[in-house]
Amino acid sequence: MAKGLVKRSEDYSQWYNDLVKKADLAENSAVRGCMVIKPYGFSIWEKIQRGLDDMFKATGHTNAYFPLFIPKSYLSREADHVEGFAKECAVVTHYRLKVDENGGGLIVDPEAKLEEELIVRPTSETVIWSTYKNWIQSYRDLPLLVNQWANVVRWEMRTRLFLRTSEFLWQEGHTAHATKDEALIETRQMLDVYATFAEEFMAIPVLKGLKTESEKFAGAEDTYCIETLMQDGKALQAGTSHFLGQNFAKAFDVKFLDREGQLNFVWGTSWGVSTRLMGALVMAHSDDEGLVVPPKLAPIQVVIVPIFKNEDQRDAIAEKVNPIIKQLQDSGISVKFDNRDTQKPGWKFAEYELKGVPVRLAIGPNDLENGTIEVARRDTKEKQLWELNDQLAIRISNLLDEIQSNLYEKALKFREINTHEADSYSKFKDILESKGGFIYAHWDGTTETEERIKEETKATIRCIPIEVKATPGHCMVTGKPSKQMVVFAKAY
Amino acid sequence: MAKGLVKRSEDYSQWYNDLVKKADLAENSAVRGCMVIKPYGFSIWEKIQRGLDDMFKATGHTNAYFPLFIPKSYLSREADHVEGFAKECAVVTHYRLKVDENGGGLIVDPEAKLEEELIVRPTSETVIWSTYKNWIQSYRDLPLLVNQWANVVRWEMRTRLFLRTSEFLWQEGHTAHATKDEALIETRQMLDVYATFAEEFMAIPVLKGLKTESEKFAGAEDTYCIETLMQDGKALQAGTSHFLGQNFAKAFDVKFLDREGQLNFVWGTSWGVSTRLMGALVMAHSDDEGLVVPPKLAPIQVVIVPIFKNEDQRDAIAEKVNPIIKQLQDSGISVKFDNRDTQKPGWKFAEYELKGVPVRLAIGPNDLENGTIEVARRDTKEKQLWELNDQLAIRISNLLDEIQSNLYEKALKFREINTHEADSYSKFKDILESKGGFIYAHWDGTTETEERIKEETKATIRCIPIEVKATPGHCMVTGKPSKQMVVFAKAY
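ok -> structure tokens follow
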């Protein structure tokens, strides 16, 4: 087809890469592993940011900003953390370039070597907890509820736009509390915020759970996550919320005087989502014709395409359309009127289909005579002829709501169909190979068995689900006792 | 005094540093030259961002995101640009750390040396123009109007919170146009956007002008700027807008097919403001008691402090205050009710004075009986007793408007008083030493004379003003002909 998208059924991975580029979401830059987020892609990310930021503020958090650079020695302060993050990172060793006296062009000035190397932050626990030490003295300073929107860098060898890039954008919340209970409640609250956002804004159902020991955040006591299922049957971790215990408080000596005058270490959490959500959004809903963007995150919710053969018709349509635009905007709907005469209507139809605009209105000379307008929805591709009257804005508004829920319902149904139980390892492998999706199975709780399953099948434990009744059983691999089923999948 | 702020008249520089820290705007981090922007400071920055971003979008710009890292070779592509930016910068040379086998802790892995060093962006012209090369083919792709909100790094030896830090936050607009005229119009339009924002939101009058050859942006044909005057008589450059000519288009080979089918280089602009604006905001309005934040940028516009001696009074006041809060919020006013019993009213009064909250309401048992409320404005420190009735919200709203204009008028008057003309070099030096401020004087247009004045007096040419009638004269130093007066000042 004209858009040059391969079908999902033919090559899902190629389809994704092509779509991200062709729909103007992002592209690779000249710097290995770093992407350029293009204006259209960024406008969706801005909607995601705004939605999440409002929810963070509604739960009492404020934003702040901490340095991009972390002194090398900070990374070593928390033993597990350094294991997880000190490996693949961008290291700043010098602070000046100079012109080579031997004609070698611009070179690093050997005189300008830093005494201690700086790491471009892969995550900011260390630099933030070193700051919190000065911010927290007494219980009156707690809880401290801070979030940061920032760029972070993790040197990745294999990168994919949005899903895994060396530099990415994210938010990271870092909170400090007087009691363990309060920190646990915060950890779960932010997991719920992420789940609500994913389901209500992104129209993606999520599975909430705990990570296993081997998959949890380096430096956390517990890592909670939301897991989503993509159209190719692979899982994608969309957000994590960590209960840090007193690990970073101890590493950075952050104590507070409690109400009884006792000095105690504080309790911490951290939680984050990133531009990876953009990848989830694309892979959860889009189709062979292009993006499908849920109305709540669509930069353009309604596009109006005029069908005209000459200037007179063009003018007559514009005259009719202007009050419609106003009516829609007054109802809080973002609308674009594509009146260009440099492109044909068919080209425009394909373009906005590719960009995933939820609703397309088309209006031509016949419609002017009949007082009608063609309404096409992106999700089902249904078209209807509507009467042009003062009910239009309210009907469009309802249609946008309907598309939003339909996308969620469709994704939920897809997940239900692609969720299975395996009572034996052979059945597990069968399902994994033939169908993919989420597989519930019993596991003995050991890292050894987890590793063996991963090596043999490439499936990982996505999470220990927290919203299902725990029924004991026996590990599908070793036959040892299992407290409850866990969820496996191949994952991004 | 209790807040521990030195008076401006005693030590302006110390007053500024202390105020920024004590009012919870920012503090130094453990990383040399990098600051932490604290929650209260960041909430003001968010208001600045939102205000500017709305204006950028209203003038047709969209946001995007480009990589943090720039390959070293890119910097050399534009000859002037490399001179200006390749010197003091953060250089990434390696991509991995490892544990030293000889027990030296975490060290840079010598095996993980980058083939080409990466520079942490000091500004993004190079990486953006290398991207534009692929985005621009024909006149249909123009104009390209893109902005980015980002962090940038320029290695600074002497840093001051907000005014000069190694890492800072900013926005950088980068546009491409088919004609020189269009690019020039864009350059001036964005200068006007900055000027309007500074005057209407920040309540700071600005002087618009052109930079001299020696002060212009490395890589630009012309640099326009807005210059502001601080309370100590020193100037602060608050924003710049650059006409890039075809310099970057030529350096990165960005051509387009025009309507006639001819291949031409495009014309460019770039423009930016940064967290430096926070410094300007503090220094323009604040006083010996603390910050004075203009209502349009105040995270808290109105604070309500209850005066109570016991629980009953506290409850009775809260009951009275709740509908007031609702009334104010419904009028779009951000309000905080500080009901804490852990701090005395006097402490709270000082605290919100320090934080620059524009309006403080106080209400105690007498007010309950009399149906009154005490209204104190931060700018003039006037207090009045107002009747508690349903006109309160509208009166407060008017008061906020009045404070906003009063701050602007006051700053404008200050600038008028501190703007002088010098018709001789000796008079120039006199004014500079005795009064400071902006000094209009004739200059022969040469870099030599400019340098000499700078060396002898520390004053620089802030700009060649563009909104005054150009009257010729003779250079105050050399007596050579001068086309018009230019504006000198000592500057931040």
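The mean pLDDT of chain B is 96.
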